[in-house]
Amino acid sequence: MNASNVARFGGLTLTAALLASVATPSLAGSFYLQEQSARGAGRAYSGEAADTGVSSMWWNPASIARSGREVYVGMHGLLLDSDVDNAGSTITYPGGTTVPVQGQAHNGDPIESGIVPNFAISTPIGDRFAVGLAVEAPYNFTTKYQPGSFARYDALTSELRSANVSVVGAMKVTDWLDLGVGVDAQYVKAKLTSALPNLSPLLADGNSSLEGDGWDYGWNVGAQAHTGRWNFGLSYRSKIEHELDGDVAITGLLGPIAAGNYTGSGTASFNTPWFASASVRYAVNDKLTLNAQVNRIGWSEFDAIRVRYATTGGDTYIQDYKDVTTGAVGFDYVANDRVTFRGGIGYDPTPTRDDERTARIPDADRWLFSGGVSVKATDSMTVDTGLTYIAFSDSDIASSHTSYAGTAAATTSTLRGTAEGYGIGASVGVRWAF
Fold first, then answer.
1. Residue 35 is part of a domain; what is its CATH number?
2. How far from 275 is each of 44, 61, 226, CA to CA, in Å?
3. Which residues of 14-27 are buried (b: 16+ CB within 10 A; e: fewer)?
4. What is the pLDDT at residue 148?
5. In whole angstroms, what is the distance from residue 249 CA to residue 229 CA?
6. Mean predicted confidence (pLDDT) in 426-433
7. Where in the sequence is the signal peptide annotated (predicted)?
8. Alpha carbon distance 420, 396 (integer Å)
């Protein structure tokens, strides 16, 4: 294998690693985690862009314009039950010999449960201005398959950790209109291990691993209108163009492809989606408020992962995500001056396409059914809780990948499988006014 082909091989490995890192199903579409507010979790995030307060700052920077001094700390536990099963996966070796992929056909709970933290603080400056700071984890999950899994050429371990730091400014323009703007610094760290096929089913697999990270930047804007019983919100969060620096290790390749064993570095770039939200809250009376929110998510920005290798060459891994529209409705009911109950239903369609879904992204359409309660423990402290059941639709896995592409050793794995599961999210947060 010449230097150019080694470069291409390493580039494909880095690409696959980045794909794995952003491919864990969550309680929102694909690799996005919307668990940024315990109060919002209780109503399926149905009124966030129109609500006020520091815990709505992720959805609308204008939310802090008239909320006073406030601190929010939240924690969200995500329990996922998932199954991924083989449905006729094959591998085609050089010369055209096609055989079934051997190994573990049933994979129970490859998607690990986890915890998502968040923090936010805001303070007014004078009578009309406010500033805020928030730290969120919008992408944060781990997926693991056993070494003998049928999906091993697609994924073994896939880890993603992220931190988003937002600095926000807001202004009360009039008695009824608020505007806000923010900048985001987003850190992403990814890790992958996977198997690589040697040129005969009688030979042990090779292995690849990658770790990469990097900081990149985006922005967000929003507006809110408060007109008596009605509250309206509009917001937009930009895409972020990520470029991760990574270290690649490829081992265990034998015979003619042994020259592909490599340890080195590379970079990979991909985009996270933009978000546009429209929300309304209507106070039916002093106790009951109805909420609705629609989000248009620009997943088509995640069209490909583009790789540059440290020596020569590179590659592009097509993703072809589609833009989606999500929505939720819910309510807040003030039982008394200390207790508020919430509920909501949300729908999140998957941005993945049926004929391009891999074991790394066993994503599916989902319904969210939520309930929650807020208790004002003291005059300055409120405890928010939320519980969400997520019903995932069953989905098919169908994709193909060629290892050592462009060489005489090209080996194509054709993945066919099914995925099903459900999730439960438990959220708790504390808000302090000071």
1. 2.40.160.60
2. 17, 13, 22
3. bbbbbbbbbbbbbb
4. 94
5. 60
6. 97
7. 1-28
8. 9
- Cβ burial of 106 (10 Å; 0-12, 13-18, 19+) is exposed
For residue 301, give the nearest of 272, 332, 342, 337 by alpha carbon: 272
Does position 199 have pLDDT exceeding 90, yes or no? yes
Q: Name the β-bridge partners of 413.
A: 91, 401
Q: What contacts 175, CB < 8 A, 6 or more positions away?
A: none
Give the model's pLDDT for residue 2: 37
Tell me the three state secondary structure of residue 6.
Answer: helix
Q: What are phi and psi of 222, to 5 degrees?
A: -165, 165
The label of the residue with tokens 């923090």 reads 119
Alpha-carbon gap, residue 268 to 242, rounded angstroms: 8
Largest interatomic CA distance in the chain = 76
Higher-confidence residue of 33 and 310: namely 33
Task: Provide the pLDDT confidence category of residue 65 given band limits of 50, 70 and 90.
Answer: very high
Q: What is the pLDDT of residues 235-258, one digit of tens each?
A: 999 999 999 898 888 899 999 999
State percent of the chain over pLDDT 70.
91
Q: How far apart are CA 409 and CA 418, in angstroms?
A: 29
- Domains held by the chain: number: 1
Residue 283 CA, chain-centre distance (Å), reads 32
Domain with 23, as residue range(s), is 3-433
Burial 360-393, CB ≥16 within 10 A → b, else e: bbbbbbbebebbbbbeeeeeeebebbbbbebebe
Name residue 85's beta-bridge partners: 106, 418
The arithmetic mean of pLDDT across residues 63-90, rounded, is: 94
User: Which of 334, 371, 339, 365 minimizes the C-alpha distance to 352?
Assistant: 365
* Residue indicated by tokens 């930009």: 238
On the question of pLDDT at 84 being above 60, the answer is yes
Cβ atoms of 120 and 57 closer than 8 Å: yes
Residue 200 has, within 13 A of its CA and on its CB side, a CA count of: 5
